[in-house]
């Protein structure tokens, strides 16, 4: 056997000899010593802390073969490749699953029976097969490791029924030690795992869940096109760095991956609907850095040992905080900073709840609680790190966050809530039972119409409506704060019902100062509210590049910045549809009739020549968009601007935010229609300032308002510069 580790007594010597490491991290050595002593172990260790070494090293040191039960083929392959990288012989580690050919399967059996294999990775579905159990009965098994053990628990974020049968399968193999490992386990999940595996007396090794190098932030998920632009900007800031974008649906995965590719990002999709061979190719491309960004469902990444993932984006709200923690934990495994960005829209939460409506009631209630925890995390104004760690049963002082979450880096205004906190805790105390957050909040604000309030006759209680002077959002924020600060208990067995504990009762008697920021209330945006957003086929890259050169030439002749002529998305659309007439050009994204007539001639001549020289068959389905396609909203904006109605009043009249109004105005200008908002600009910008800003815009090649803010040393706001830029483009381009 390679390395002659058998019966070795010193794990450190073996660690250095085989893996080349000088020392262990965290609890690794204690876990390994326990396994070598033949004890059952339960290991809770965050992603990146080295869980796999906890079973790999003792497997090499102990006599026989260690069975590693793993949930994904991709994970097994990654782990086996890693072990073989340290070994002279491929036989040292194998995986056994449905992807193997007959020849590969025979090699596994041969190496196992010869005693050459120290680690065998199997899926639980493979382990239960008679052929597998028969093979294992012929060899000595050193121990069984259950990786990603949260899959056992119905409370875990990746519930898998076959995992709940592992104990009986292990009994078939023999009386061998069991090692269960996971990166995420709440106290409830932990108990469920140990009970199911019959290892309640196992030694517990629990590391801190804190990942101090990860920056957590949550942004509102609004209109699709705006979010896509934000994601593009975010990824381009992480120039050529590795990252993962998680989506809940396969369709969304494909859409985001295609959008990124069309914008010059090396991105690939990964989901269960792809052929297994394609999934493996995409995973390998990511590991080998042939691809920078993987857009994936939650199937991707479990156990993938890529240390330099610099960012993780959640396009959709995760189904649980366990899932969110696990997925964000794939960033920064090398100890360097990782950015974790979550997009949140209450409408996504409603969708997740609807998806569960056909499931058994108990499963619906469990799933509903997990989703509610994720929503509370997203909406909270408290330290994100403190909230996450509290969820996993760990106490944390937000002072240690070091501004590594958006709420600590950009704290919202706080108010003294000592009196209100006492009032809320008194309500819990006098009601003498466990209640949901919604029930207690309805009691405090005095909501008589709530069915729960009526059923308990709580509207007759003396303290009913004690907090009617503040809204539900305030009281929800306060109850969440009371929970995280240890004044309330949450009964997981009863789907998250809350009750006061001794610390809460002491606070009523002796209140201490507390400050709080009210949680964020996010707009509920449905898919119906999104602008039409159709992904076209990939453009002709040669034509696109040549059109950019032509734009630069035209811009110099006219002494204008290139983006005023046509923006990149317009050139890209030309390189897809090959317009050769003014009418066709007018219907290119972001052009319009006026701009087509003003700047179009050299572009149409070049495209027509290019089409002829390259024998290109132009798409016949170029849709001519007439004025009828302008929405009533945009017509209203144009008319109101013509009447010199103040912009905030226009936004209010249309029921949209000021940011949305700016977006609509930008679309109007890009489609070729002039607008004149000088009457509005004159209210807060002197003529000299306007001239100074316009001269600056004439010198830049790419629109970048943030750069403009820096150039003027913060003298002008984002909105002022954006509006000036809109007027500038309207004057010169249309």
Characterize this entry briefly.
This protein has 734 residues and is an alpha/beta fold.
Strand content: 5-15%
Shape: globular
Gross CATH architecture of the largest domain: 3-Layer(aba) Sandwich
β-strand number = 17
CATH superfamily of the largest domain: P-loop containing nucleotide triphosphate hydrolases
Oligomer: single chain
The name of the CATH topology of the largest domain is Rossmann fold
Tally of separate helices: 34
Q: Roughly how many Å is the radius of gyration?
A: 30 Å
* Sheet with most strands: strand arrangement: 3-4-2-5-6-1-7
Weakly predicted, low-confidence segments: 528-538, 620-630
CATH class descriptor name of the largest domain: Alpha Beta
Structural class comes to alpha/beta
State the share of residues found in helices, binned by percent: 40-55%
Sheet having the most strands? 7 strands, parallel
Query: How far apart, in Å, are the first and last alpha carbons?
Result: 77 Å
> What is the mean pLDDT?
82
How many structural domains are formed by the residues? 5
How would you characterize the overall build of this protein?
This protein has about 725 residues and is of the alpha/beta class. It folds into 5 domains: about 200 residues, P-loop containing nucleotide triphosphate hydrolases (Rossmann fold); about 200 residues, Rossmann fold (3-Layer(aba) Sandwich), CATH 3.40.50.300; about 100 residues, Arc Repressor Mutant, subunit A, CATH 1.10.10.10; about 80 residues, HRDC domain (DNA polymerase, domain 1, Orthogonal Bundle), CATH 1.10.150.80; about 100 residues, ATP-dependent DNA helicase RecQ (Arc Repressor Mutant, subunit A). Helices cover about 50% and strands about 10% of the residues. The strands form 4 sheets. Strands 3-4-2-5-6-1-7 form a 7-stranded parallel β-sheet, with helices on both faces. The protein has a 6-stranded parallel β-sheet with strand order 8-13-12-9-11-10, sandwiched between helices. The chain has a two-stranded antiparallel sheet with strand order 14-17. It is globular.
């Amino acid at each position: 056997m390679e390395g002659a580790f058998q019966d070795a007594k010193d794990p450190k010597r073996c660690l250095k000899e085989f893996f080349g490491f000088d020392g262990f991290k965290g609890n690794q050595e204690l876990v390994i010593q326990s396994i070598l002593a033949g004890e059952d172990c339960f290991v809770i260790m965050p992603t990146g802390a080295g869980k796999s070494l906890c079973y790999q090293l003792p497997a090499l040191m102990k006599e026989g073969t260690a069975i590693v039960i793993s949930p994904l083929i991709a994970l097994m392959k990654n782990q086996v490749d890693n072990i073989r990288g340290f070994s002279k012989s491929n036989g040292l580690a194998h995986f056994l699953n449905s992807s193997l050919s007959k020849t590969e399967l025979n090699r596994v059996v041969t190496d196992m029976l010869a005693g050459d294999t120290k680690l065998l990775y199997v899926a639980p579905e493979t382990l239960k097969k008679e052929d597998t159990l028969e093979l294992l009965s012929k060899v000595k098994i050193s121990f069984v490791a259950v990786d990603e053990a949260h899959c056992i628990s119905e409370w875990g974020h990746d519930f898998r029924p076959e995992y709940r049968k592992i104990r009986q399968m292990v009994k078939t193999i023999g009386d061998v030690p069991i090692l269960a490992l996971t990166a995420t386990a709440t106290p409830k999940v932990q108990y469920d795992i140990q009970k199911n595996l019959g290892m309640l007396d196992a030694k517990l090794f629990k590391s801190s869940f804190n990942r101090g190098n990860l920056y957590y932030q949550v942004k509102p998920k609004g209109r699709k096109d705006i979010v896509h632009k934000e994601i593009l900007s975010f990824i381009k800031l992480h120039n050529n760095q590795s990252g993962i974008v998680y989506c809940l649906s396969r369709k969304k995965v494909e859409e985001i991956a295609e959008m990124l590719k069309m914008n010059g990002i090396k991105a690939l999709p990964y989901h269960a609907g792809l052929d297994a061979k394609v999934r493996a190719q995409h995973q390998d491309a990511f590991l080998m850095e042939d691809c920078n960004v993987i857009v994936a469902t939650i199937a991707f990444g479990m156990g993938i040992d890529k240390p330099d993932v610099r960012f993780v984006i959640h396009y959709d709200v995760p189904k649980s905080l366990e899932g969110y923690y696990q997925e964000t934990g794939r960033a920064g495994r090398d100890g360097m900073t990782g950015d974790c960005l979550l997009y949140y829209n209450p409408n996504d939460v409603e969708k997740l709840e609807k998806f569960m409506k056909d499931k058994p009631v108990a499963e619906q209630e469990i799933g509903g609680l997990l989703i509610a925890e994720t929503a509370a995390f997203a909406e909270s104004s408290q330290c994100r790190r403190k909230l996450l760690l509290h969820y996993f049963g760990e106490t944390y002082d937000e002072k240690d966050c070091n501004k590594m979450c958006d709420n600590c880096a950009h704290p919202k205004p706080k108010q003294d809530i000592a009196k209100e906190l006492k009032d809320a805790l008194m309500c819990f105390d006098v009601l003498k039972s466990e209640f949901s957050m919604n029930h207690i909040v309805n009691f405090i604000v005095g909501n008589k119409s709530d069915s729960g309030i009526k059923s308990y006759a709580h509207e007759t209680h003396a303290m009913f409506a004690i907090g009617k002077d503040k809204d539900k959002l305030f009281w929800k924020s306060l109850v969440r704060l009371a929970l995280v600060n240890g004044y309330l208990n949450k009964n997981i067995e009863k789907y998250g019902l809350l009750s006061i504990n001794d610390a809460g009762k002491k606070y009523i008697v002796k209140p201490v100062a507390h400050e709080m920021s009210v949680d964020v209330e996010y707009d509920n945006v449905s898919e119906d509210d999104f602008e039409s957003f159709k992904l076209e086929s990939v453009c002709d890259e040669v034509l696109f590049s040549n059109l950019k050169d032509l734009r630069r030439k035209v811009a110099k002749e006219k002494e204008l910045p290139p983006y005023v002529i046509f923006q990149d998305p317009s050139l890209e659309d030309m390189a897809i549809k090959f317009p050769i007439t003014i009418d066709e050009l007018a219907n290119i994204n972001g052009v319009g009739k006026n701009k087509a007539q003003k700047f179009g001639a050299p572009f149409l001549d070049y495209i027509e020549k290019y089409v002829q020289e390259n024998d290109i068959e132009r798409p016949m389905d170029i849709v001519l968009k007439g004025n009828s396609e302008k929405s009533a909203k945009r017509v209203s904006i144009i008319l109101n601007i013509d009447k010199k109605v103040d912009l905030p009043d226009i936004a209010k009249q249309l029921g949209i935010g000021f940011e949305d109004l700016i977006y609509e105005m930008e679309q109007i200008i890009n489609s070729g229609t002039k607008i004149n908002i000088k009457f509005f600009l004159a209210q807060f910008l002197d003529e000299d300032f306007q001239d100074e800003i316009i001269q600056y815009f004439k010198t830049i090649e790419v629109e970048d308002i943030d750069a403009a803010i820096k150039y003027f040393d913060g003298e002008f706001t984002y909105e002022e510069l954006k509006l000036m830029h809109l007027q500038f483009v309207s004057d010169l381009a249309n």
